[in-house]
Amino acid sequence: MTKLAIFDLDGTLLDTVKDLGNATNHALTECGFPTHPIKAYYQMVGRGIYNLFRAAVPAGQSTEEVVQRMASIFIPYYDAHKCDFTRPYDGIPGMLKTITAAGVRLAVASNKYQDGAEKLVHHFFGEYDFVRILGQREGQPIKPDPAIVDQVLAEVPSVTKSETVYVGDSNVDMQTGLNAGVRTVGVSWGFRTREELAAYTPSAIVDTPEELSRVILGA
């Protein structure tokens, strides 16, 4: 029986790509670099904002100084505009309601910077009690390192890895769950393709939040 569901955030619970792309394009413009169409960001996001900036800046120009300047522009802009277009995917609120009613506890393990992850979860899912909301933090490894899953599990010592499921939309997420030794489920509605998910042979790949509810609950 599943007792704990750990979710990726961007591309899994929330469709954030337009706001992420707009904020990155704003930072690129301020730094004098060309921008990208929003669809290009589907492949850039998922490994934290610093890797996002390294991918977005023209090849050969992503020095540490440039990356830090991008961050200094991106973060306040994104904080002000993070909910302009971001919304939960259709069916996500119902899925969370269904699994929590069955006693499953919730957590988020994301590569989004910590403050951004917390604010989005509280804004869109504030009615739920999350065990932990973890994002990218100074001095902590990012996914696919399994440390973030272990940190969530440390908060609920009564829950074992066999009673935990990790849910995400990318190869990074599939690797994270597998590295952590927990059941791993891919969602096809996010930023990456079903083929990318299938390459890691997760326990399941689901096409709707309703199907995800059934997989989590073992129905």
Based on the model shown, name its key terms.
single chain, 219 residues, alpha/beta, Rossmann fold, DNA polymerase, domain 1, 2 domains, six-stranded parallel sheet, two-stranded antiparallel sheet, 8 strands
List the helices and strands and how they pair.
Elements: E1 4-7, E2 14-15, H1 17-30, H2 41-44, H3 49-56, H4 64-81, E3 87-88, H5 92-101, E4 105-113, H6 114-125, E5 130-136, H7 147-153, E6 164-168, H8 171-180, E7 183-187, H9 194-198, E8 204-206, H10 209-217
**Count of separate structural domains:** 2
What's the CATH topology label of the largest domain? Rossmann fold
Strand content: 15-25%
Distance between the termini: 10 Å
Helix- and strand-based class?
alpha/beta
CATH homologous superfamily (4th level) name of the largest domain: HAD superfamily/HAD-like
In short:
The protein has about 220 residues and is an alpha/beta fold.
Explain this structure to me?
The protein is of the alpha/beta class and 219 residues long. Helix 3 crosses helix 4. It is globular. It contains ten helices and eight strands. Helix content is 44%, strand content 17%. The longest helix is centred in the first third of the chain and has 18 residues, at 64-81. The chain folds into two domains: 4-15 and 87-217, HAD superfamily/HAD-like (Rossmann fold); 17-81, Orthogonal Bundle (DNA polymerase, domain 1), CATH 1.10.150.
